[in-house]
Design goal:
binds manganese (II) ion; 142 residues; single chain; mainly beta
């Protein structure tokens, strides 16, 4: 199964880099507030450049691997085409995130904007705070 990784990144503003392995690269989105397990909490996800697969293993002074796992597409046909079409759902099996999720594009342009939304299933929950530390090293950024 293809991999996903979420890196917590302290840049000018703290954000989560959500990355899905698709056709040999990591398709990437910057999620300022991070994912929410609450389907009512739609989180802005700004599409950024694809990254190399090896980038998903990186931790450093300003980056931790906040979550890591595998995913399976919940789309008919090629997952890359679903993403290119602006709407893709997938099932995550990670250390922190599980269950169904949807990425939905809401605007195009130089940095397309999407929403990252938890689907309603047994892994959905409201009011749950996810642990801050790296799933690889236990480090935190603050
Ligand atoms: Mn980043």
């Amino acid at each position: 199964m293809p991999r996903y990784v979420i890196q917590l990144h302290q840049a000018r503003a703290l954000h989560y880099d959500f990355r899905l392995e698709v056709d040999g690269v990591l398709r990437s989105w910057a999620v300022p507030k991070g994912p929410s397990l609450d389907p009512a909490e739609k989180r802005l996800a700004v599409q950024v450049d694809d990254h190399s697969l090896s980038h998903g293993d990186y931790e450093g002074p300003s980056v931790i691997i906040w979550d890591d796992g595998v995913y399976s597409p919940l789309t008919d046909g090629a997952f890359a085409e679903a993403l290119d079409g602006g709407h893709a759902s997938f099932w995550l099996e990670g250390s922190k995130l599980r269950g169904g999720w949807t990425l939905h594009r809401t605007s195009d342009g130089r940095k397309p904007q999407w929403l990252l939304i938890k689907r309603r299933d047994e892994a959905a929950a409201a009011g749950v705070a996810l642990a801050p530390e790296s799933v690889k090293t236990g480090r935190t950024l603050t």
